[in-house]
């Protein structure tokens, strides 16, 4: 039974049951590391980030994509419980304050227009609105991609290659980079990060559009190592 029904469909006990991600974490993507190993900077990044340089300087998540947090995100995305976005945003703001600090704006990862029409909203936009920074729709998904679920890392990257572009603006709907991106520190926002393929594809477009730095903040992270 909910202790405060007017506050949303998730009770306060369940919110408190969502633990933050504990170190050691990859300095770049935020994935779990097996151990600190040493103070050598090479071991502060996961193997994936050491092998494949990322356009994202730092990525963090409010928690692991499991248990209560996974259920909350599913309620938001697939059941349309949009009131959950505010509480998720508050958790992201608190646990990702190092990512938001000094940033100029947040950019939600876009949905393809067909998926947005079917769902009725973009959960990334709902999350972005509660982070306390200007929200800029600086990306457009130009290709409907297959679901990333079940794909390995290399196939995920291939799946989203070329899937994002700047919005259409101006005369004859030509593509133009948003002036607000120029020399800006941008935080990409999404609900879940797995291998980071989608975030990296978005970051490449933002960097080519003039962003000085791109970071990422998500509600959840699918960890490659059990904690």
- Summarize the main sheet: 4 strands, parallel
pLDDT < 50 stretches = none
Order of helices and strands: HHEHHHEHHEHEEHE
How many individual helices?
9
Distance between the termini: 30 Å
- In what order do the strands lie side by side in the largest sheet? 1-6-5-2
State the shape: globular
What's the total number of strands?
Answer: 6
Rg, rounded, reads 17 Å
Overall CATH class: Alpha Beta
Named CATH architecture:
3-Layer(aba) Sandwich
Structural class category: alpha/beta
What number of domains?
1
Percent of sequence in beta strands: 5-15%
**Helicity range of the residues?**
25-40%
Average pLDDT figure: 86
What name is given to the CATH topology? Rossmann fold
Protein model, in words:
This protein is α/β, with parallel strands linked by helices and 227 residues long. The chain has a single domain (5-221), classed as Rossmann fold (3-Layer(aba) Sandwich), CATH 3.40.50. 31% of the residues lie in helices and 15% in strands. The protein is built from 9 helices and 6 strands. It has helices at residues 12-16, 47-51, 67-78, 84-95, 97-100, 113-119, 123-128, 153-160, 197-208; strands at 58-64, 105-108, 140-141, 164-165, 185-193, 213-221. The strands form 2 sheets. Strands 1-6-5-2 form a 4-stranded parallel β-sheet, with helices on both faces. Strands 3-4 form a two-stranded antiparallel ribbon. α9 links the parallel β5 and β6.
